[in-house]
Amino acid sequence: MDKAIQLEKLAKTYGRRRGLVDLTLDVERGEVFGYLGPNGAGKSTTIRLLLDLIRPSGGRATVLGLDPRGDAVELHRRIGYLAGDFTVDGRQTVRECLTFLAALRGGVPERRIDALAERLGLEPAPRIRSLSKGNRQKVGLVQAFMHQPELLILDEPTSGLDPLVQHVFLDLVREARADGRTVFMSSHVMSEVQAVADRVAIIREGRLVTVDTVAALRERAVRTVELHFDGPAPAEEFRRLPGVTEVEVDGSRLRCRIAGSPDALVKTAARYTVTGLLCEEPDLEELFFTYYRNGAGHDDRVAA
């Protein structure tokens, strides 16, 4: 079966600025794929190329086995898209807007639209121009999900949403995956995608940095560990361990940070009497930013 998305050395330049540099990437059908990077990394450029909103300077993209340019009409029927700068006619009410967009889709049951709006806490009567950014984003989410598309392409989908609505959105993503549909979502916040993504790609300055499962990234992330002993904490032994940093001792309490496998730390601690142990969740946000610190100093100018 074709991949949901296949990119082969995809490139985009804007004059002297580089938007993407030889991006090669596959997204499997039925998976939730997180596409991570700060503003300006090239996330929106990638999405616009997938939808033929802009044309590549080089390379090739295939979406649902089709060519984004030559098969655009058929392809757009099968995609739900939320732009990072979602805008619609401000004179329409929410219901008028969604009814109009549903008609463009060939018709969507009204009960489906109402159910999505209710889950997201979106009132149908107000005019679009009177809505807050968060409520406009809810309109964008409803129109993207309402026709139950084969592929969802979502650019910064939780921008402006309050935490409760973000949880509803994540539930919608899980339901789409359970139905066998594919979700490709961009974000600049690691924690936003780690709850639902099967795999994550990190992009920096238009270049792909890494692609991996969330579980594998978690294994490489930094953990904070606190150990309590029945006597003075053996600080020096822990400072010599691979991956262990920031060792702090307060009497019988030892606190440190560890990157990667905790195996050596656990085996060292087992030589003593441990009376308490606390291990915090790995800091995936820090891992995410580590990729950017390691790439500091790149001079190419990159567009969003």
UniProtKB/TrEMBL annotation:
Signal peptide (from-to): none
Transmembrane segments: none
Domain ABC transporter: 5-230
The family this protein is said to belong to: Belongs to the ABC transporter superfamily.
Molecular function GO labels: ATP binding; ATP hydrolysis activity
UniProt-listed Pfam families: ABC_tran
GO BP, sorted A to Z: response to antibiotic
InterPro entries reported in the protein's UniProt record: AAA+_ATPase, ABC_transporter-like_ATP-bd, ABC_transporter-like_CS, ABC_transporter_ATP-binding, P-loop_NTPase
Name the UniProt record assigns to this protein: ABC transporter ATP-binding protein
Swiss-Prot/TrEMBL keywords: Antibiotic resistance, ATP-binding, Nucleotide-binding, Transport
Topology class, membrane: Peripheral membrane protein
GO terms for cellular component: plasma membrane
Species name: Peterkaempfera bronchialis
Cell location: Cell membrane
Organism placement in taxonomy: Bacteria, Bacillati, Actinomycetota, Actinomycetes, Kitasatosporales
